[in-house]
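Marked as duplicate of an earlier ticket. Keeping the data here for the record.
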Amino acid sequence: MKITLLSLAFVASAVAVPVQPSASIAPEAVSSIPIFRHPKNATKLERIAANKDFSIQKYSALTSGLQARGPILTNDANELYYGPVTIGSQTFQVDLDTGSSDFWLRGANCQSSDGSCGNGQPAVNTREFKDTGSQFQDSYGSGSADGEIYQGTYTLGGVTARNAYFGVSTDEQGFTDPADGLLGLGFAAISNIASATNGRAPIDELGLKSFGFYLSNANDGDQGLVTLQGADSSKYTGGFNYVPLNSRTYWQYSLSGGSVQVGNTKTAFSIRNAIADTGTTLIIIGDKEANAIARAVGASANGNISCSVARTGPKIVFNINGVAYSIPPSVYVFEDQGQCILGIQGGAAQAGVAIFGDVFIRQYYTLFDVANSRVGFALAKHN
């Protein structure tokens, strides 16, 4: 799908509504921006396989102790969604990632050995901004972004961060997608730039109380909508069910007492915690429950499945915090060129957490409630 810059222009949603808080919060203006995925050269199934590996690497350091503080950035096989950010008088297309917490742009002096800096994207002109003299160094499973920290004003979807800190890369590895940088929407505890400056992540600098992610049906193309300071009521039906966060690092919540059910077969979660992640395609859970699902729907050990399951297969129900979330077969089966793969797989033990990515977020509009330290799910409404 070819995306024009015009189609990425900021739009306001007339039906967006603020989140109903559990604590007293001053009302904020609600705005939305369209988001898209980068065009791909690989097949859909090749991208899904690569994305699973990236996502497991991305979070494995969370429990391994190998990295005490810094964010584990990701290019997730080009599976991140991107949208426009204006900084000073300049506008860039940046990847939006709920699984990291730094904002950085590609610098004019950026160097790389894999083409990460040489894809023809515009570099940020730093003359408009204050050089703090500090540096940032972010790493992830198979790449990195290093550089200098600057201070300036930037805007995402009509929400502005004034005199905020951001990075300008001088070295990148593993970021070969066409984006001009990355804006992390996680918490300050995993932000290298925050630890080197004022302790504030982009969600703090922007003053975000909440933001909602809507992802279109797979057949409608890789696009969606991010709504800031609220949720877009035209994109979901019913109310939100909230799950409290048990860590203000990633968007992490407990799976304690939860289970996966297919028909009459229920399997308890073998993984303690889960993360809501817009940069992961699949739902990645423990091997025990993943194997139970595969047996129930007739998938092979590597996830291959008959394409007929997308039309005739059973629903898969995730019980989280006392609420049942049903995923139909048309959502959990990915089809490409006559081949199909199961969108719910094992591997969470390697990551240290379960990861609820696009398969879940496409079915359930996901609200990231910063102010109340919770994540909310409502049934998505597709055209």
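See parent ticket for discussion. The helical segments are 44-64, 192-196, 202-205, 287-297, 309-312, 329-332, 348-351, 358-363.
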